[in-house]
Design brief:
Shape: rod-shaped
Order of helices and strands: HHHHEEEEEEEE
Number of strands: 8
Oligomer: single chain
Strand content: 15-25%
Largest sheet: 4 strands, antiparallel
Distance between the termini: 132 Å
Helix content: 25-40%
């Protein structure tokens, strides 16, 4: 016969909060919300890496929330546990997707061929030089000046580009000599209004850039009688075209 004073211990059930105390489920719920948002954000390429701080906060909140369930002050064990799992998954996905996307972009950039670069030669070593007939080298510009075309250099370099050209263009340089055959100082510079005609029939004006390993024709002259000045005049033309002729002060020289 059982004693009327027999005490039966209540069964140990799930982790319920103590009687009279409201469950503290906020952290577990917050962890779940952050886990869902972080998971969505982690799927965005490149930008997904930005969710890492939020996922880390969500993970910490989930761990604390789960600890509260164990301490029987919270009841949302499922939310806290789901928050921990989602936030860990979000961090893994964010890092993985960002790494894959970054590698894909890097490989794509490597596969793009670089823009064509001009393979200019230094002055004095032209890739080709036009042969000018001796009878056509020397021509009188006027009663005082005799202009001689000395050399034509194709695809040459400028020391620096005051007037930059596109990769599909090239520099053609004409070496000239002006001799004063008059009795007064020669002060004109007719090569400033020179025209280079290519094999396409188009005309090009001089390109006023500093020269490499070659003296440019001066912008101003003061040549005493019997003396001369030599230098280069440079033109930029399409790379596939060739210099056909040059015109100075209305007088033309054939360059082929």
């Amino acid at each position: 016969m059982s004693s009327p004073y027999y005490y039966q211990q209540p069964p140990q059930g799930p982790s319920y909060p103590l009687w009279g105390v409201s469950p503290k489920n906020g952290l577990g719920t917050a962890a779940l919300v952050l886990g869902i948002l972080s998971l969505i954000g982690s799927l965005i390429p490149l930008l997904g890496i930005l969710v890492l701080p939020f996922a880390l906060v969500g993970l910490i909140l989930g761990i604390i929330g789960l600890s509260r369930v164990t301490q029987r002050v919270a009841t949302n064990r499922g939310s806290a546990l789901a928050g921990i799992i989602l936030n860990i998954l979000s961090m893994v996905l964010a890092v993985t997707i960002t790494a894959i996307t970054g590698n894909f972009i890097w490989q794509a950039q490597k596969s793009i061929p670089p823009p064509p670069q001009a393979t200019h030669q230094p002055w004095g070593t032209p890739t080709s030089s036009a042969k000018i007939r001796e009878s056509q080298k020397h021509k009188l510009l006027d009663s005082e000046g005799q202009l001689t075309i000395l050399e034509v250099a194709d695809d040459v370099n400028a020391e620096s580009e005051i007037q930059p050209i596109q990769p599909e263009m090239k520099y053609v340089a004409i070496k000239m000599n002006i001799e004063n055959i008059g009795e007064k100082n020669y002060t004109r510079a007719p090569w400033l209004i020179a025209y280079l005609t290519s094999d396409s029939g188009k005309r090009y004006t001089p390109s006023y850039n500093p020269y490499r390993d070659g003296q440019a024709m001066p912008l101003k002259t003061d040549i005493p009688p019997g003396e001369s000045v030599s230098g280069w005049v440079m033109f930029s033309i399409p790379r596939e075209q060739k210099a056909q002729s040059i015109e100075v002060a209305g007088i033309s020289w054939s360059l082929h």
